[in-house]
Design brief:
The complex is a heterodimer of chains A (104) and B (231). Chain A has 104 residues and is an all-alpha fold. Chain A is elongated, with a radius of gyration of 19 Å. Helices cover 78% and strands 0% of the residues of chain A. Chain B has 231 residues and is mainly alpha-helical. In chain B, 76% of the residues lie in helices and 0% in strands. In chain B, helix 3 packs antiparallel against helix 4. Chain B starts with 5 loop residues before the first helix and ends with a helix. The relative contact order of chain B is 0.16.
């Protein structure tokens, strides 16, 4: 499938998700048994993408001090927790990686 | 009582969203820079901004296209990330029912986390049709314009950035930054831990399918935990 087609399908699907209740389903409550799992989707998917990026940055699991991206990632998540700001998380995380790269 | 004009409500929305731009603009820049660092066509990369218009889903799409994941995975993962918009849509629908059909169909195109949070809390004070439409537009449209410009500037600037700067690491950092606020309850923490661990265990799975398996495992584990703690 061409990248264009992937992006268009994701775009249309995302629009329909946003439109869902406002334009199609109308004002109604989401049943609890749908809403509860829906709230868990974001943490599950985000962790499934984020954790391998730092634990196995080059596709092999490396939990050691030699894995500089893991250390920089731990610093970044601390910043994320404290500030709740993506800007600060990216900034501090990148600078940490540069310093670690320079030191080791 | 005097009824506020559309212009007043729009300006109020713009003012409310301005501080949030400080977080959104760097995120948009990073998406542009990330695309510039991949072999993905720059136009496809920028199109994610106006076709998808949701940062985490855009970066997931780019990452999966770049890693040669199965097309079905590259489509399913960002769509799953974007399911949360259905919750916003449901919460905002009673207010939007005061608007014309045309507005009800195009305004959701620019519905984002930030526009939803700001508008939903504003509607608790006033929910006349003017406020519903124009305050929302002030927040959502401002974000849309800023986002298109930020990703475009990121693309142009990113082409000049040398690889030694490890800007690809910014993808991981974006998701780490999103993870902290996403873990807002104990079931959410269980979902995140299980999702993360299964994703690492599933790295060997072909074409990025590990992410889908891990996400389902995370949601299932979090749901079971929540169900057990509620009994």
């Amino acid at each position: 499938m061409s990248p264009w087609l992937v992006v268009i399908i994701v775009g249309v699907g995302t629009y329909l998700t946003r439109l869902s209740f406002v334009g199609i389903l109308g004002s109604r409550e989401i049943p609890t048994y749908v809403e509860r799992p829906l709230r868990l989707v974001a943490p599950a998917v985000i962790a499934a993408i984020a954790i391998p990026e730092v634990v196995a940055p080059f596709d092999t699991v490396d939990i050691s001090f030699g894995n500089l991206r893991l250390i920089a990632g731990l610093i970044a998540i601390t910043v994320a927790w404290k500030t709740k700001s993506i800007g600060w998380t990216i900034g501090v995380g990148l600078v940490s990686l540069w310093i670690l790269d320079w030191l080791f | 009582m005097r009824v506020a004009t559309p212009r007043e409500r729009f300006v109020e929305g713009v003012k409310a969203v301005s501080p949030i731009l400080l977080g959104a603009v760097p995120f948009g820049l990073i998406i542009g820079v990330t695309v510039a660092g991949t072999p993905i066509d720059n136009w496809v990369g920028w199109a994610t901004s106006w076709l998808i218009f949701a940062g985490a889903a855009q970066i997931a799409t780019i990452e999966l296209l770049n890693s040669g994941a199965l097309a079905a995975v590259a489509v399913a993962t960002p769509l799953v990330i974007n399911l949360r918009h259905a919750m916003y849509s449901a919460a905002i629908a009673p207010h939007f029912s005061k608007l014309t059909p045309l507005d009800r169909w195009w305004l959701p195109y620019i519905l984002t986390d930030q526009a939803f949070v700001l508008s939903a809390s504003r509607y608790e004070r006033d929910s006349d049709a003017t406020t519903v439409k124009w305050y929302y537009l002030g927040t959502a449209l401002t974000l849309w314009v800023a986002w298109q410009l930020a990703t475009l500037v990121g693309l142009v600037v990113g082409a000049q950035v040398p690889p030694e700067w490890s800007l690809d690491f910014a993808i991981a950092l974006v998701f780490l930054g999103l993870l902290a606020p996403a873990i807002s309850s104990r079931p959410a923490a269980v979902a995140a831990v299980v999702g993360g661990v299964v994703a690492v265990a599933g790295l060997e799975l072909p074409n990025g399918t590990g992410i889908i398996v891990a996400s389902l495992a995370g949601v299932a584990a979090g749901s079971i935990f929540e169900w057990r703690s509620l009994r």
